Amino acid sequence: MNVIEISKLTKMYGKERGIEDVSFDVEEGEIFGFIGPNGAGKSTTIRTLLSLIYPTSGSARIFGKDIITAAPEIKKDIGYLPSEVFYYDNMKVIDLLKYSASFYKKDCMRRIKELSEIMELDLNKKIEDLSLGNKKKVGIVQGLLHEPKLIILDEPTSGLDPLMQQKFFDLLEKENKKGATILFSSHILSEVQRLCDRVAIIKNGRIVTVEKISTLKENTHKKFKLETVSDVLPDHFAINGVTQFKKDGRAISFLFRGNINSIMKKIAEIEIGNLWVEEPDLEEIFLHYYEREE
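RE: above sequence
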């Protein structure tokens, strides 16, 4: 079953593009990554999903219900963390969280205390006295206090130190094991690589690809580095599947996608001093997808 179904979702701001024909599904119990550089359309997609802004065309469903006509009903089971959090400065953290909990008509106090301990958040401080990182922690607790079935996170780690990021990821994995579906938007690929099952890559408001993380990493590319004994002309490696070719003296590196035997035959034609074959990181794969789109 799909928790989120997005079909040709488009949002225009006058003549300016927000997103165009965005389509993907998120399955129940999945941690789904949504990646692209800043300005690619990630936040616009999420805000449209949450009916904070309305689409120009296209449609989307959450829990099988239309995002516009069933918006109030859907929101009861969603936890949302925006990329930037803004609060009433003169409120205490605990009062703000109690106020948030009041919308869900259930007692969330035990849960608030549990989450605050995990995130090392002082409930008695005033919002105006909090650092950026601590305000982000308030947003995390606020988004999870009602034990939502769907958690939507927009650049959730900005402002968190590395130790707190780790605790946050552990918390998300725990929520996912309990049954929560997670949509995780980020421009930091290592985060997505660590957490997600599948990923949608967005560029200039359009989806470039939707892939399993394992497919992105294992079945698409290998990273080659070699040192040659004598000088080699770059066009020796001008074959289908070779991208990001770099040559520095006798050191050569490139990504290869395709039948590995064909590239090994090319390598066997020259005298080499050393050879490394590695899985590329997502950063390199990501650039490859972008270059291919160009």
